[in-house]
Amino acid sequence: MQSQDVAPRPAPASDDPVVDVERAEAALVEHYPRLVRLAYLVLPPSLGRNRRVVTAHSLTQRALPRGRAAATPVIPAQSTGREGDPGYALLRLRVLRTALEAGRPLKRLAWPKRSQLPPLLPQVWGLRLFPRSGGADELALDQGLSALSGPARAAYVLRGLEKLTDDDVAEVLTAAGVDDVDEALEEADTVEAQYALLDSAEFDPCSLHARPTDLMRRRQHTKAALAAAAALLVSGALLGLPGEGWSPDGPAAPPYAQNPAAEAALDPAQLTKVPALAWQSSARTDFSVWPARGDLTDDSALLRRALAVWARPGEKVQVSATPGTPAGGPPGAPQLLYAGSIDNARVVILYDGLRIARYAEPQDGTAGAALDFSRVDGATRAEAGAVVVSRVDGNVRYLLAPWVKSAAERDLLKPRTGPMNLTVTDGVTAPMASPAAQQTGTCTSWNALQLSDSTGTRLVTDLAELVPARLTTGRPGSVKDAAGPEALRTWAPYSCWLGAMRSAGVRTVNAWAYAQQALPDGTGSAEWVCTRAETWRGGGERVLAQFRTPGATHAAVVAKAQNVAACGARDPHVLAGVLWKAQTGGWYLLAAGTRDTESIRATGGVQGTSEGSLLAERAKQGAQAELKGTLESGRSINGLQ
Predict the structure, then answer these.
(1) Is 294 helix (H, G, I), strand (E, B) or coil?
(2) Does the global pTM surpass 0.85?
């Protein structure tokens, strides 16, 4: 580490490396996501997430030299993939310099630098952009970095993101115009070295969520401007007209008028709190009869913040919603399901008849607050059994329905292994490993939550949403909860493909073993299973046709479709095919339909017809074929693509 009395670094000499514009442009194109992430992390968090995203892109795009060539100082060692590239080093230095300038306060008697002003480009009107939300570790790191000065943040990021030594960091910071490098390095040491988190989606300004700005305020401002202009133009004429005149909103109150429902939605005293035993006498068994639980149900300040953020989330609030779920404020006073301290956060869970809303803020403040929505209208007892209350370090905790008697964790890939009981305290389970962030290619387990009550046992699983998806088995129209030994054996080879259903607003997922087919080489029988995910919004359903050979641990997805009725209660039929290689080396086209399939015909690269619901035809490697089937009713069906 350099001492504090090091002389300022001289300007680059004429024999320093020179970077032409073409080389710098190539480096910008190749490393653009890296440079934007660097700018985003160094920019002051006080700008807000939307402004930081737009400014980071603006600074990176303006880092390209304007002349035909530009001199760059001697560059320290760089990480793999950028080593020895003076173009990247020059761009990194220019991005770092302007990001540090953007964090400096404006001076009264000096013109502001361009980086200190809102960027002219890029601009996205009517939308707020922000990176994907991370976990508790990313949130804690973001809070730690926000407490640092700009140079200290830059030092931390250069260490962690660029893998530079302290000497190299000092050299880069000096070239970027930092006066006291040693102080910046020492201040950066006050934040725990969690450098791997810098590569997470939380700090990726190139992978973004989009949400509308404050629509009500924007509409009000537009209406106010139009009304003012109209008043100036026709005020004289209106004064001469008899009666009260005409209003575009008719007898509606003006936008700024007090509204009883809106006021009730922001008043903690108006929250609905259901008695603890109300579910036992109610005809309904859904979220509407859940009692309010948690140690902070009487914390009016916390509840007021949660309601206010729901009604008008600020720019720094991380907002997410499952597809088809409106993110607007509640229509009236919602119902309180939970308010408590859990896993270093204060959490409030609310229900308005249509949605579950989860508000979370850190224990030590409100910076980094998050608001999540999930649609749950029409939930039944089987689907209203649990809500995610916390996610930390790959684990998840659930708030359970009052009728749930016990909860356990079960690995779907190991149907013969018994469930592991979970401790439940005030309705909240102990943490269990969540499969939500698991990659399909590395799937070695898939944990599900087993719930038991007076009506039976059922399984639900976390698909990265507030409400876990219910798992069922059987023919569409007569499905059963996946809880018994046979259902568990059905799900085992197909569980890892649940990852394809993540973050889609999934309500239930059904696995249906619709056919068995003897393999042409005599090595046994293959199983055909159709997996269908239904959503809360009623559209966007996903269907997978899967094929498993004897002895295979996992199945293969051979066809998939979205927004189709196949394999569902409205159309309990499916036809799918696969090009399969026998142990003898020959290739076959195998296809299977439901039992009431009368015949199957293959056209295209493979020609063949079969009577019944199964087809096996010799084929060539890579052959493409189209399938059509005829049901016993005479109706034709196409093969799932």
Answers:
(1) coil
(2) no
